[in-house]
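Quick one, T. Sequence first:
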Amino acid sequence: MKDSKTIAMQKMLDSKEKRYYKIKRFVEENKKPVLSFMLNIPGSEKNFEDAVNFHKKYIEEIKKVLEENKIEILWEEYNNLDTGMEYIALIDGDGKFIKREMMKLEEGNESGRLLDIDMYDENFRQISRANLNLPERKCIICEDVARNCIKEERHSLRELEEKVRNILRK
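Structure tokens:
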């Protein structure tokens, strides 16, 4: 019998795979960039009220940035899944420019650390920080490179959850 952690991980992987193929289909059918927005929420509970409200608030921030730059959303979808809220939008604009603008949201203040905004260009290549010669994201707890802390499991789940909930309450 599988334990709850294994089941939760499988749900997350299944959700990620579905999102991947959905984005791939949109890009291939439309030859336009796609934005995907999730939250970096540790633990198995992803869609509690504060997180849902926070996600919706930042969808509006994303739309505001796009509108200010006269970038049109051609199609959008919002889903509140057990594995977290997801927002996907087909965009009529330059993917690299949009990624840079979204990174300003991610880096604008402490709450931006919870944002996970991915961009795929019209050829379905993910536009990453590395593609733009920018540094990796920092850990929400200690300011080291987040990937290092995740790999080495430096921070407890409880510590991470507490930090995230404090950010969401602000």
